[in-house]
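ok so heres the complex, three chains, lmk if somethin looks off
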Amino acid sequence: MSLLTLNAMQTRIGQYAVLHDVTLEVPEGGVFVLLGRNGAGKTTTLRSVMGLWKPSPGSVSFRGTDLTGMHTADIARLGIAFVPEDMGIFGGLTVEENLVLATANGSFDTDSLARIWRLFPALEQFWTKAAWSLSGGQKQMLSVARAIIEPRELILIDEPTKGLAPSIIDAMAEAFREISVHTTLLLVEQNFEFARALGHQMAVIEDGRIAHTGSMADFAANKDLQASLLSLSA
Amino acid sequence: MDRFLTTIDRIGGVNLLPLAVALVAFFLIGVPSSWVTLTVAGLAMGMMIFLMASGLSLVFGLMDVLNFGHSAFVSFGAFVAASVLGWLAGWLGAESVVLNIAAIFLAFLAAIVFGLAAGWFFEAVIIKPVYHDHLRQILITVGALIVAEQMILAVWGGTPINVPRPNFLTGAVLLGDVAIEKYRVFAFLLGLVVYLALKFTLSRTRIGLLIRAGVENREMVEALGFRIDRLFVAVFMLGSALAALGGAMWAGYETLITPALGAEMMIVVFIVVIIGGLGSIEGTLLGAIMVGLVANYVGFLAPKLALASNMILMMAILLWRPNGLRPAVK
Amino acid sequence: MTQETDRGADFVKLVVLLIAALLLFAPFLFQDIRSLEVAARICVFIVLVASYDLLIGYTGIVSFAHTMFFGFGAYGAAIALRQMGPGWDAVLLGTLAGALVSLVMAIAIGLLSLRVKAIFFAMITLAAASVAMVLASQLSQFTGGEDGITYKTPDLFKTATKLVVTEDGKVARLFGVKLNGKLAAYYFVFASSLVLFVFMIRLVGSPIGTILKAIRENEARAEAIGYRVVAYRTFVFCVSAVIASLAGSVYAIWLKYTGPDTALSFSIMIDILLMVVIGGMGTMYGAVIGAVLMVLAQYYLRDLMGTAAEALANVPLLPFILNPDMWLFWLGVIFILLVYFFPKGIAGSLARKETEA
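and the predicted structre for the whole thing:
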């Protein structure tokens, strides 16, 4: 059984239908990459799963639980974390406070804290600094750290490499690889190199519909398909 | 010049503004004893306005809800406290300080309890159906304000009501040739205690952390697994209770209150919130103190300008900082 | 579907035309002074409410300063007539001065607050309006303070003026109505209101109206397409302010008296809000319906309530409910219910209902 199932999902924002028919099965384990052009509906798909926008009609189910109509907070409590495109950092709070909020009961588990500090040493260094003073890359690290401070089943990540320096992208890829051993990642990405390096399964969304889905290896080998779906020249 | 500005920023930035105002006023007024009296009055007034405004600011910050009916809580607080003080007039006039304190404590408590209950009702009935619709939100809260004011009029009548002060808070303390009204000191200290308690809650407790995070990014707090709407009810009730407390204290300060009190304070509260920046209690405090001081200084220096002074202050600050002095980080 | 929507809208238009006809012939249909008062007030408030609808209905921003602009116009005309005497030059100068002050204030408020946040705008207009109110009562040497000012208007509008005389030198009558200055004054009010209202209808029908609707539907999208949202909003705010100001001048000329209660008080602002919500926001025609209903209710229903309360003095509770002092309370309750259940108002709901049928 797949971990997350999107069934004929449609989402409107105001009077504009952004998603027309998104049907997708995300299997448990590994990294599932969602590709697509700007405005194709990738972010909307993630937000619809998270309940931040309500899909109707259509349904989203997670391990057999129907998420449609559930409150975002309750969806999160099922073990789904969200790393939004703008990172969603609380700038007025310190790094520590940002992470404390993401814990279930307000205290840190020593092991997961140690893991975060190992993956992202900068966070330990700026532990008591206000989060707005962090660099873009450090904010992205904090956002990911918030998602993994508690054990989760599924993490939705929206364009984590956008605007980041190459060295930080590498660190991010390393972290994702490690996280994906125990947790399923649903990754929206524009950076195809990054996506290819990490992804196991993938789908391309085009104009609010799933245009292709399959394994990343097959897709990476098929240059024609890439060219037609992503207008990649390479 | 740049260096000068950095230095100012380091030692407190905009927080120094009230100090600068006080300093300028000192030279304009020229008589130290008058200046002290006015400054104390301004600080006391500022603290009471802060109580009235803090809830409005937090509620807006957290849920983007601007409650035009907020001043109804101020009025109700004032009238409820006035009624309780009226019933306990015997205790107020007693020589025993304990009875005095008990009376004023009960009056304030009644206002707070009323504020909590009214806040809960208001949130559930008036605000909840129009969370995400600013236009209807403004209209409905204005409608609620009309209804609330008419209720006050129906219950307490249109004539001014006398508010007795407890014995131990009447009169003034003499420091040299400076007379300081006891009630003002009391109002300032009580306001300060509430501010510190609020500040502590917001910075040291988990619920405070949630509120601060929610003010910045509501969606993200929900995506972390917290029900903001439930938190919001609590904040709304707290804000209403603080407004009612502010109104109760204001009633004791003015000693004569009319149903127009709410409408008058509403303007001041709005100006404070705009000056201070929405969503942060530090900003609200700063705005309230500024308004309190400026109102008192200008009232002394140029009485004709007194009523317009708040407005001029607001315009000046908005031109300088369109988002207010210390808005919450967004 | 579109056709049926049109049918609903046509019905609303028909009602509005009927009201216009009634107002046009009001002096002949209802031959008493009070009725003429009511008719003139309706004319002025239609313009005032429609100009407010221009703002709230077509840009979605809420201003509490609309009475202030109305007041500028009224006080402008009133002060000029008082200081310069009852001439047309005073009327013109006062009206223009009022409109100019309104324009300047609107530009200042708009530029200061419209670019920040729509909600700031509501608060700032409220603050500005309250300062205007305070100023009007403080500058009593010009404004007459709380008492207001009375003055004479041009001779043409005097009740004693004979527009048409019969052979024996008396005022001629048409269908029993004296053709005197009062009649001229009424038609001055009617014609001015009609011109202003038609201007607004044309404005919302023009390309500008279309852009405004686009901004109202989706601000971010309109901005992305390249419309300068702030500029358009400020523009509409200015137009709406100037029209409110002109309406104020017209009303001041009709009443021959201007004071806080007739031109500046916050209760007028509440009336405007009620009228625009009752009638229906964003429809223009809704303003007509809302103004007619509210003014009629103010003049007749309130009295009726008082009479009923007295008549039912022995019945428990009813006298309390019908007490005219509770008028505003009930209006507030009705207002809240309307915003909840009929946010489109009468005009909007009518058009909708026809569609559904």
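quick notes: Residues 4 and 62 of chain A are 5 Å apart (CA to CA). thats all i got rn
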